[in-house]
Amino acid sequence: MKIGLYFGSFNPIHTGHCIVAHQMAYQTDLQQVWLVVSPQNPFKPSNGLLNEYHRLHLAKLAIQGIDRLRATDIEFHLPRPSYTIDTLIYLEEKFPQHEFSVVMGSDGLQNLHKWKNAETLVQRTDFYVYPRPGFPLSTSLKANITAVNAPLLDISATFIRDQIKAGNDIHYLVPEPVREEIEKNGYYR
Ligand SMILES: Nc1ncnc2c1ncn2[C@@H]1O[C@H](COP(=O)(O)OP(=O)(O)OP(=O)(O)O)[C@@H](O)[C@H]1O
Ligand SMILES: O=C(O)c1ccc[n+]([C@@H]2O[C@H](COP(=O)([O-])O)[C@@H](O)[C@H]2O)c1
């Protein structure tokens, strides 16, 4: 099966993430998209990061009922911070029957050359990229990129965390079960 690995902190998962995952799973040749919740992104600070099991639970709530989407804790059991090349190699060994690609927003392309073993990564796997406002679909690396033609989504987890801290309502910015879970537990206040 052709599977897209969609890596992220998902702190928290939001409507932008869900649309990206859904478009990739239903408008490209990918047959499934797995949301890989990264416990610790190598480029991002760990402060303000909700516990990874809570982030995974929110991701599962967000995709429930969508056949081609999965959320996985695979990086919880791998060394930290989470490097994509390591996770990819691990998954290729564990699931030799599948073909894995990487799904990302176009902001990720800007820093791709700084990722661990970037040259090896782009030789080893294809990239499916969703446009993000302000970030062109280009990289200095020789990567095989499939771009989707889909609406720009100017939503970020940072914006959502800021809204919650300010006491503002986040209806529609995140799926409803995610909003309810965040509110019930007082996350990000
Ligand atoms: N609105 C969006 N449009 C396209 N891609 C997105 C969007 N939001 C997130 N992504 C992509 O989702 C992946 C995971 O992103 P991440 O979990 O860091 O979310 P974020 O909203 O960028 O978070 P933060 O605001 O905390 O930095 C990245 O590949 C990122 O490019
Ligand atoms: O492998 C790397 O060196 C590497 C560097 C930065 C980010 N990543 C992966 O990309 C995911 C999304 O990153 P970001 O910065 O767009 O939120 C993140 O959760 C990691 O899994 C991976």
Automatic annotation (TrEMBL):
Keyword Nucleotide-binding set for record: yes
CDD domains: NMNAT
Catalytic activity: nicotinate beta-D-ribonucleotide + ATP + H(+) = deamido-NAD(+) + diphosphate
UniProt keywords, alphabetically: ATP-binding, NAD, Nucleotide-binding, Nucleotidyltransferase, Pyridine nucleotide biosynthesis, Transferase
Top enzyme category: transferase
The Cytidyltransferase-like domain, residue ranges: 5-162
Matching SUPFAM superfamilies: Nucleotidylyl transferase
Segments passing through the bilayer: none
Pathway(s) served: Cofactor biosynthesis; NAD(+) biosynthesis; deamido-NAD(+) from nicotinate D-ribonucleotide: step 1/1
This protein's record includes keyword ATP-binding: yes
InterPro entries (alphabetical): Cyt_trans-like, NadD/NMNAT, Rossmann-like_a/b/a_fold
A GO molecular-function annotation: nicotinate-nucleotide adenylyltransferase activity
E.C. no: 2.7.7.18
Record's function text: Catalyzes the reversible adenylation of nicotinate mononucleotide (NaMN) to nicotinic acid adenine dinucleotide (NaAD).
Similarity field: Belongs to the NadD family.
Protein name: Probable nicotinate-nucleotide adenylyltransferase
